[in-house]
Design goal:
single chain, 163 residues, mainly beta, five-stranded antiparallel β-sheet, 1 helix, 5 strands, 10% helix
């Protein structure tokens, strides 16, 4: 039991809008609000649980969730999760991470689809792609273009000037 230190009355609290409908499919700019390393249900693997806050172009303040398998008994699931993590790192301009907290605050665009309802779950959103924000910087992992050797000046038919 925890003492609240105050009396809280239901009539003084805001009411929920009840807007838990999935976002329309599309491209949204999001900020990573949280990133937690979580064990899988069977305890044999781990995934990064992301909470993404929509900041543009519409539906600001709504939340999207995504899970990235980084250790999994299924090699395919792990490969997909690691590809997704790589896309996120490139999108938010990080070359490498050692802690999931380094992801927090990263801004990127996400492609969102609607996942149909099942017997167990209501319809919801699913992230299908992670991209650098429109007009964003190139990822830190991009290598600089190699310097090309200067070529000899083009030959002209103009005579050198005496001065």
């Amino acid at each position: 039991m925890a003492f609240l230190g105050q009396s809280i009355r239901a009539e003084d609290l805001p009411q929920s809008t009840g807007d838990f409908e999935p976002l329309p499919a599309g491209l949204y700019t999001v900020s990573i609000a949280s990133a937690e390393l979580t064990p899988t249900k069977d305890g044999s693997g781990q995934y990064i649980k992301l909470k993404l806050n929509v900041i543009a172009p519409t539906h600001q303040g709504r939340t999207i969730f995504a899970n990235l398998n980084i250790r999994n008994q299924s090699a395919k699931a792990e490969e997909i999760g690691r590809q997704q993590l790589g896309s996120i790192l490139r999108a938010i301009n990080l070359a490498a991470i050692e802690d999931t907290d380094q992801l927090i605050g990263g801004v990127m665009d996400v492609k969102v689809t609607i996942k149909a309802a099942t017997d167990q779950y209501q319809a919801g959103n699913e992230v299908k792609g992670y991209y650098a924000p429109a007009g964003g910087a190139k990822p830190a992992t991009a290598l600089p273009k190699p310097q090309t050797q200067a070529t000899a000046p083009a030959q002209t038919t103009e005579k050198p000037r005496p001065w």
